[in-house]
Design brief:
Helices cover 60% and strands 8% of the residues. It is globular and about 50 Å long. Helix 7 packs across helix 8.
Length: 191
């Protein structure tokens, strides 16, 4: 739902800064995080062509809590730096700027100087079934993935606006339109 909402906001004129895309950039050859990852996890995380082997990295980085913390300690600051640079490049424009951030936590509001937080919300059972049916996860893998994320309540508590993704696309589009109107109104009021 998050990516669909981001695409709908871009269709309405928003500028998108996508954390997932930036995460791939910072681990590409020459990216800010690749060297430190190799230093921490070893050259076995690289393919023969020198690019990151995501499967090999996952095998070592998700092995224990310390390794996962090291992975996050290397990648998250690099991603945040690029996001802040790109946000600064469009500051003061007359566009709504959307930072698409998976696993948004309260610290992101301050770290990335977010004016507004919009959360795409889906009931847990529906989210689980979508992961299984649409993304091909096993029920166990889907539950484990969701358990590692901030809870639905935590995400909703930190939101200025909540977009409901529990129904069909028509309902989602209507909710995006409602939030878009509010965001454009806030931007106009601050200009």
């Amino acid at each position: 739902g998050k990516s669909t909402v981001a695409a709908l906001l871009v269709e309405r004129g928003a500028i998108l800064i996508d954390a997932d895309r930036i995460a791939r950039e910072v681990v590409a050859p020459g990216g800010a995080a690749l060297g430190p990852l190799v230093e921490r996890f070893g050259p076995g995380i690289l393919g023969a062509d020198g690019t990151l082997d995501r499967g090999a990295l996952a095998a070592v980085a998700f092995a224990d809590a310390d390794s996962l913390a090291a992975l996050n300690g290397i990648t998250h600051p690099a991603i945040s730096t690029v996001m802040l640079e790109r946000k600064a490049a469009v500051e003061g424009s007359d566009h709504v700027v959307v930072l698409d951030i998976p696993l948004l936590k309260p610290v992101h509001r301050e770290l990335l100087a977010l004016d507004v937080v919009v959360v795409v919300d889906t009931p847990v059972e529906l989210a689980l079934s979508r992961l299984v049916e649409q993304r091909g996860f096993s029920r166990q893998d889907a539950e484990a993935r969701m358990a590692a994320q901030p809870s639905r309540q935590e995400r909703r508590e930190g939101a200025d606006y909540v977009i409901d993704n529990s129904a069909d696309l028509e309902h989602l589009v209507a909710d995006v339109d409602r939030v878009w109107a509010a965001l454009v109104g806030r931007l106009a009021a601050s200009s």
